[in-house]
């Protein structure tokens, strides 16, 4: 490849290892998404991709461009920051929608809050009697 | 100070973001400062709650604790996925009573719990301070309650409250 001829070997090995590790974790996350059975379990699997998966790929990118341009390339940190800050928003939307559906249908065993149950989850009739607290 | 710069922390982070996206030079510092100043004034129209950070020294500690936990639970969840059906696993819900009431602290807690594979924030009731989370591999319910209350929530309430 042109322009990469003087790219040092140690950095190339490190970058490829990080890329492989990151993408392997992301792949595992998607496999988990397919293989888990319930919605609440499935929610956990893609987190692999958004944390260590993305982390590995972004560190590889920072290392690659820092060595290539011989100056510190750090804007990948912003990707990490914004992914971390925005994922709870989508997760909470999905989780609340799922929990509302399951409580209405009375399907999954979801513990409800016993005292001061707000109107939105008043249908949680399947609250276990042995709830802690 | 407050009338000149309504959100100093926001302005500083915006300047830092501008510098990271472009390059660290005096010209970009000035340009970024102008944009950040305008943007932080635009923010006053939204009137966001202003977090008060009391313990700056706790922030790096919390950061590294969370980083370590994220790394460890990544490996744990990857193991669970790889083992598949061969290993018995009990996913389940846990209710955690929280003392933490500060909004920014709760938002950071939500980020931590979401970013850690194996735990997911499901529901929080502000009136009784109870948090419902889902855990992928629930072995000991009480251990999870203690982990989240003593490890994260305590540090967060020291930082923000």
Show the helix and strand layout.
The complex is a heterodimer of chains A (133) and B (161).
Chain A: H1 9-35, H2 39-42, H3 47-68, H4 76-105
Helix pairs in contact in A: 1-3, 3-4
Chain B: H1 8-21, H2 26-43, H3 58-83, E1 92-97, H4 103-115, E2 119-125, E3 130-135, H5 141-160
Antiparallel strand pairs in B: 1-3, 2-3
Could you explain the architecture of this structure?
Chain A has four helices and no strands. By secondary structure, chain A is mostly helical. Chain A has one domain (9-108). Chain B is mainly alpha-helical. Chain B folds into two domains: 8-46, no CATH class; 58-160, no CATH class. Chain B has five helices and three strands, in the order H-H-H-E-H-E-E-H. Chain B has a three-stranded antiparallel sheet, with helices on one face.
- Stretches of chain B where pLDDT is under 50 for at least 5 consecutive residues are none
Largest sheet of chain A: none
Tertiary shape of chain A: elongated
Our count of helices of chain A gives 4
Quaternary form: heterodimer
Strand fraction band of chain A?
Answer: under 5%
Shape of chain B: elongated
State Rg of chain A: 22 Å
Distance between the ends of chain A = 63 Å
